[in-house]
Amino acid sequence: RGAGQGAGVFRRSAIGRGQIMIDTHAHLHLPDFDHDRECVVIRDFALGLTGILEVSISANRWSIVKLLAEGDRRILATAGVHPHEAARETAPDLRALEKQIHHSSVVAIGETGIDTYRDYAPLEDQRKLFAAQVRLARESGLPLVIHCREAFQEVFSILDREGRGEVRGVFHCFSGDLTAARQVLARGFAVGLGGAVTYAPERWRPLLRSLPLESLLLETDCPYLRPAPDRGGRNEPALVFHTAQVVAELLGIDPGELERIADRNAAELFGFSVTARDQGAGVPGGQHADRFRDSGA
To answer: In whole angstroms, how far apart are CA 53 and each of 120, 146, 158, 179?
Structure first.
């Protein structure tokens, strides 16, 4: 999909209402954005987005993650290996990513965790990879971005053993029940909410109203999980506004209030600026476009 296609979906009146906001989980480095990555970044910031956490899932495309963060200071990055990659990326790949945690834009470890819903990697490989990244988060003092799908007890066990109560972060795209959510909060972690909340919103109402607003982060997980009613297409960071509106309606609060609280939570966990949010543009003209192409994007 080109930059101009589906433009009506991205009108400010449709998603942003003039508000400002941070997407705390994006994957703009993935091939889905290879043909229009720079256009998406420029457009979404123009629509009111003021920060993006670009989440690494593999050592293989780290160079594009780094270029995104270096190209615009409103984009922060993570360094990590996704559980789906556990069979393909081993200790040398993880060591290569470990070297990147000192990069000025890296603010978290992940995306890492355990996924027993998809059979993309052996469970024991996932456990080892997750444990190593929890240790890295504890040793570096960086927060952890956790992927957990039908594996809460596995994740809690490793997190408790390797994190020793010294690691915090977020369970991104949270998919558990209230019991799991309370265990997440008890460990000092935030709950990440994305487009999945819009698919069956009434299921989420009692859970959301049981959680403190200070525990919530808003995200897209783009290019995945595009919000309803257009859930079949590619997701983009600016659509976090739509998710925010649905979550605010379920909570019974003003969307602007939720956006301010969620942004403050993102600032406290990842270091985003919420005081000078419109002063971060690094390359409004897009000087890194050729570098993206040269890197193989």
So the answer is: 25, 14, 25, 28
